[in-house]
Amino acid sequence: MSEMRFTKDHEWVRVEGGVGAVGITEYAQHALGDVVFVDLPAAGKVLAQGGEAAVVESVKAASEVYSPVSGTVTEANAALEDRPGLVNEAAESDGWFFKLTLSDPGELADMMDRAAYDAYVKDLD
Amino acid sequence: MPESFPISGTISGNRALQIEEPLIFELGSDGRLGVDLPDPAPVDEDRLAGCRRQGRIGLPDLSEPQVVRHYTRLSQKNYGIDTGFYPLGSCTMKHNPRLSEKMARLPGLADLHPFQPQKTVQGALEVIDSLAGWLKDLTGMPAVAMSPAAGAHGEWCGLMAIRAYHEDHGQGHRRRVLVPESAHGTNPASAAMCGFTVDPIPARDNGRVDVDALKAKLGDDVACIMVTNPNTCGLFEDEIIEIARATHAAGAFFYCDGANFNAIVGRVRVADLGVDTMHINLHKTFSTPHGGGGPGAGPTVLSDKLAPYAPLPFVVHGEGGLRLVEHVAEAGGAKPFGRMKGYHGQFGVFVRALAYIMSMGSDGLRQASTDAVLNANYLLARLSDVLTPSFDGPCMHECLFDDRFLKDTGVTTLDFAKAMIDEGYHPMTMYFPLVVHGALLMEPTETESKETLDAFVEVVRGLAFKARSGAAADDFKSAPRYTPRRRLDETLAARTPVLRWKPGANATAQAAE
After folding, report:
1. Complex-level ipTM
2. Is B282 helix (H, G, I), strand (E, B) or coil?
């Protein structure tokens, strides 16, 4: 499994073969509480790094999810439609939001790796 | 004798006057009637064709006393401003003076028909015109659109006027709107509905707009900024003049969300702050019903630049009295962006607002906003040593705490709020604004006495000490105990909502499970 990269807004991206899977982090799902609805981008949608990509709604709040990298959406996680709780159960694996082909893989270089993100989160509490 | 009975609890499931009330569809029995109507004359021929009803409508069959009891019991389960202190504040409901209610029920006003000839409704037009005059005086603004039906509708009105101005001046490319992170959710929603894109402005550590960040985002594609003042943290935006100056210098307009106008009436004229347009929530500032008590109203004041684009209809002084302008052709060269609503706006609310304003007088309005701020600061002062205030005081009409005081107690803001219900209080606003963690936002409003506030403070202090004792987390987690229903499963309700009763479903039994 390839390495994950993280944003300050608590999204992650895992790239394999030029395709990135995107989701929200364990920290984010815990802060949100029970997720009740996820609005996902359609395949073919072009996303810019940091642009609005999805909406996640929990019992506490509705929040925007920003795309950690630029690219074109290839697939949304259909499983979340029926089971939004998957985001809580497996935020950083089966609870992925969408996949996209990266238009600029160079963007990954400036993002946090696991150790840096963990340190960042530790600082927030 | 029942064949079986519970050892504890009651046989009926009721707890004294806390009655288990079924849905109205679960009451009654076939053929029972509240009103005995004669059988309709047989119809030989009708034009219903395929629209003819095929089966039962499914209305419940009930007697009149059953209906009366049903709704009376439901009303008794409600907690409202007439029941007790309500720290959600004016966002949801504040006291509606009975005098205003009486005025709104005067037959000459209540029984008007919107299609009556204008010469027969001169008094009603005068009510609208007088209220408009007060709103212009209190804000210092030259014009007001009276028809928006609520706060968010007023936001939309102001933004549409801004958009119309830009398009009329070759500035139609201005489509970006700057909105602070702490804004009401309606602000970005209204901007998006108006075809704008929303760009968030971060806050500073003191809870106010980061002016440098705002300036950095201004540009020739910005249509306007939307700033709430006082803001949703209950703080006055102390750099508001500079914010307005920078915004105007960039060719953009300043939309002020006037939801919190109730904190500054009689003390600040928003025109002096450089505001171009602002909606006024009559229910918040001028004590008209809201939140189940009636429709809202969101008259929107406009600057000289924006006034020509005000929506239809509006009242003008003409020959032979007041006249309602309903068409562009009659608008005397103005360029209304359209019409937002049927008829003239929420007339019944206008009557209440005008009655409130006239009964208070300008000195009374000033005292109301002053007392609202005083009461909030009293709560802030009396709770600051046990709760954790998010920002340094003084505050305006509401005081904001976060959940740092609950750190490591195992108790959350939600648990705390549920425990308040057991104490007989409606909880304050929770988890909003989002800019602080686990927010507890309290707005006492101007109408509460010191005795009421002191009793509330004692409860909140007691709960805070209990939470921090470290031994009461389970107690909080199991609150509320004394309500007809314990803690509801919000997640299940959101994920698989049951939105209506269906024949055969037993909602009461389901809810009790």
Report:
1. 0.73
2. helix
Mean pLDDT per 10-residue section of chain A, whose length is 125 residues:
87 93 96 93 96 91 92 96 94 96 94 95 84
pLDDT in tens, B16-71: 878 889 999 888 888 888 888 888 888 777 788 888 888 878 788 999 999 999 99
Size of interface A-B (CB pairs under 8 A): 17
Query: Which pLDDT score is estimated for B512?
Result: 45
Residue A87 tokens, joined: 């985001």
* Residue ranges of domains in chain A, CATH in brackets: 4-104 (2.40.50.100)
Q: What share of chain A is helix, strand, coil (3-state, %, to 5)?
A: 25, 35, 40
Helical ranges in B438-504 per DSSP H: 450-468, 473-477, 490-495
Q: Which residues of chain B have pLDDT under 50?
A: 292-293, 512-513
Q: According to CATH, what is the number of the domain B386-486?
A: 3.90.1150.10
Question: Phi then psi for A27, rounded to 5 degrees?
Answer: -60, -45
CA-CA-CA-CA torsion sign (A26, A29, A35, A40): negative
Looking up tokens 């907690």 gives: B79
Instruction: Answer whether B494 sits within 8 Å of A59, measured CB to CB.
Output: yes
The token duo for A55 is 């909406």
Which residues of chain B lie closer than 8 angstroms to A37, CB-CB? Answer: 494
Mutation for testing the B interface, residue in A52, A60, A88 having most B CBs under 10 Å: A60
Q: Measured between alpha carbons, how far is residue B179 from residues B77, B166, B226, B254, B299 in Å?
A: 39, 19, 5, 11, 21
Nearest CA in chain A to B490: A59
Choose the CATH number for B99-356 among 3.40.1160.10, 3.40.640.10, 3.40.605.10, 3.40.50.300.
Answer: 3.40.640.10
Contact B270, B244 (CB under 8 A): no
Parse chain B into domains and list their residue ranges.
99-356, 386-486
Say yes or no for a CB contact (<8 Å) between A36 and B495.
yes
User: Do β-strands B222-228 and B176-180 pair in parallel, antiparallel, or remain unpaired?
Assistant: parallel
Phi/psi at B197 (5° precision): -100, 150
Distance between CA atoms of residues A35 and B382, nearest Å: 36
Q: How far apart, in whole angstroms, are the C-alpha atoms of residue B21 and residue B75?
A: 11
